[in-house]
Amino acid sequence: MNEWFSAVTERGVRISGPMLEQKAEFFAEKIGHSDFKATEGWISRWKDRHNIKFKRFHGEKSSTDTNGANEWSLAKLPEILKKISPQDIYNADETGLFYRATPDGSLCYKRETLEGSNKAMDRITVLCCCNMTGTDKKKTVDNWKIRKAKTEICTSWLKDWDKELGKQSRKILLIVDNAGPHLKLIDLKNIALEFLPPNTTSLVQPLDMGIIKNLKTHYHGLLVTYILKAIEDNLVTPSTCAIDISSKINILQAIQFVADSWRKVVTIQHCFAHCGFRPLIDLPIHPIISIENYVAQCVGNGELFIKIDDGVQYFNENENYDNILVKLLKEVCKIKKAMTMTMTFNPSKLQKRSRKVH
Prior knowledge:
This protein is α/β, with parallel strands linked by helices. It is 48% helix and 11% strand. It is built from 14 helices and 7 strands. A 5-stranded mixed sheet has the order 5-4-2-6-7, sandwiched between helices. A two-stranded antiparallel ribbon has the order 1-3.
């Protein structure tokens, strides 16, 4: 266990307590002790024996307009809840995601100094959208283009969704923040846009109550797991460290991680209720693990790790990934073509033909 911990931390992998628990139980099962349980007490004593402790950095918090949020919650929100059913109330927002970033803190030996490394600043914009009941989570829209293209993608997404709702003879209310890319489109027939007051999203927007946070928790957990698996399965050279592996994460992998993470988000009803969107009828709320536990399962300093994306711009005018995307799509097409050829190959037919020849 200690040898494994030393090997992975030397290569820059950030390790948390729950990761230690899982690995300890894994090693115990390997040596025939399948009933072993790595309790918090056992982990604490193990860390003391090997002089291991957790070290972290610090984050910061932005300001909000409390008065504007209170006014909207008391005056506007009750009208919305009276007129529109919960399943037709949606919230959408973008968030910047450092898709190659690894944790800033980790468990380490007490004798060691936790040296920071340059953060991978490569980022994408993720558009999240879901309804109040949590029964409809729209597919995330991932964008890495310049601002003009980003606005066009947002507009196109709204128009396509509006047409889809028209075919269903359904009308919905979409609550969005007051950011620039959210255009006040007048040609939407089935989507009514409700804009939140400026600087109030962290107080009255459901996605900011923990939904986006939960999404990023799952994403960074998948990223750390991916790095650990690459090292433990000897898929990289002995000198390769965590940041070397994360720096090779491409846009396609990031999109897949985001999609997998979005499917795992189950805090939607709780987050809507937390900021005042209380339904007029009793809705079944699925039992969930708290967000804090999700964070702990993924990374040790999860609270700070998730916040590394806070305040990130939704676009980068100096980057254009069009060529990269085209190359990735060509690679995917080649893989699908190869898989199709493999699936159409039937060895049994070949054997029958060989028998006829004989």
